[in-house]
């Protein structure tokens, strides 16, 4: 009994060390270039074909989109997309693709399939995730002198992926101001985040400098938008 168990363990471990398809996980900023790296290791099998499949938000089922044959090279299955370039090497059993000018619609899962003899089809899946930087802006709500709390300004980070973190640095103003943040997610996976700055439009708040700070994976450094709170008198706005 023990001997049989040992034998099974042995067989399983040799199997695990045999043929492997190596892929990865790719994160790329919109407009950038992605390497969809895929190759087979530890096999002496013959490779007859490499097939690439993908599924995206628009086409959620795996579809063949590119095949690579030793003689003909890469062939698009349906429409041609020259942003894809085969940069692997068939003889090295390397199916690596390069995708340039990556767009949000390319996000999804890419599968490379190696058709090997005698072991059959071997595959691995490579998720492609996009980072989309936001459009950022501050809008002054033109508050007028008064004693009730009003909206001073909104700071917007529009259409980012993943969602942006948006906050206000209000320094010495402390609890004289208040902020709220809300966000809306769109079907294409991007999010718009809006942070609002509220306070009582008193004279002593006029001229104070604050900053809206936007951060997220899509930016190599934090973005900071300066804003000067201006409390207007009614007549200034009428002019
Ligand atoms: C596969 O091809 C890519 C692109 O040419 C290369 O960067 C990578 O090192 C290759 N991988 C192996 C294991 O040969
Ligand atoms: C966030 O809330 C503000 C009001 O505070 C509203 O005007 C705006 O439409 C909301 N924005 C989003 C993206 O939900
Ligand atoms: C995502 O969808 C929103 C809302 O429809 C749109 O405004 C935005 O441009 C889209 N973003 C991209 C990168 O396609």
UniProtKB/TrEMBL annotation:
Q: Which UniProt keywords apply?
A: Cell adhesion, Disulfide bond, Glycoprotein, Membrane, Repeat, Signal, Transmembrane, Transmembrane helix
Which GO annotations describe the biological process of this protein?
heterophilic cell-cell adhesion via plasma membrane cell adhesion molecules; homophilic cell adhesion via plasma membrane adhesion molecules
Localisation per UniProt entry: Membrane
Protein name (database record): Ig-like domain-containing protein
Q: What InterPro entries does this protein's entry cite?
A: CD80_C2-set, Ig-like_dom, Ig-like_dom_sf, Ig-like_fold, Ig_sub, Ig_V-set, Nectin/Nectin-like
Pfam families attached here? C2-set_2, V-set
Q: For this UniProt entry, what is the primary localization, expressed as one broad class?
A: membrane
Q: Does the keyword Membrane apply?
A: yes
List the SMART domains hit by this protein, alphabetically. IG (SM00409), IGv (SM00406)
Q: How does it sit in the membrane?
A: Single-pass membrane protein
The entry sums up its family as follows: Belongs to the nectin family.
The GO cellular component terms are:
adherens junction; membrane
Pinpoint the Ig-like domain residues: 17-129, 133-228
PANTHER family linked to this entry: NECTIN-1 ISOFORM X1-RELATED, NECTIN-RELATED
> Secretion signal: which residues?
1-18
């Amino acid at each position: 009994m023990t001997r049989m168990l040992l034998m099974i363990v042995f067989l399983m471990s040799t199997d695990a060390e045999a043929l492997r398809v190596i892929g990865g996980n790719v994160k790329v900023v919109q407009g950038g270039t992605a390497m969809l790296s895929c190759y087979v290791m530890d096999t002496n099998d013959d490779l007859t074909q490499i097939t690439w499949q993908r599924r995206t938000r628009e086409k959620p089922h795996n579809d063949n989109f590119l095949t690579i044959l030793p003689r003909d090279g890469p062939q698009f299955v349906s429409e041609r997309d020259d942003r894809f370039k085969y940069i692997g090497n068939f003889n090295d059993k390397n199916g690596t693709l390069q995708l340039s000018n990556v767009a949000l619609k390319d996000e999804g899962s890419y599968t490379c399939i190696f058709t090997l003899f005698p072991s059959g089809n071997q595959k691995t899946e490579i998720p492609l995730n996009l980072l989309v930087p936001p459009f950022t802006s501050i809008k002054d709500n033109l508050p007028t002198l008064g004693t009730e709390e009003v909206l001073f300004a909104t700071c917007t980070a529009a259409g980012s992926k993943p969602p942006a973190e948006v906050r206000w640095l209000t320094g010495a103003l402390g609890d004289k101001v208040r902020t709220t943040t809300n966000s809306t997610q769109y079907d294409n996976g991007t999010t718009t985040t809006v942070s609002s700055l509220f306070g009582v439009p008193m004279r002593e708040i006029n001229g104070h400098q604050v900053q809206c700070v936007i951060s997220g994976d899509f930016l190599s450094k934090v973005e900071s938008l300066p804003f000067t709170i201006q409390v207007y008198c009614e007549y200034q706005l009428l002019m």
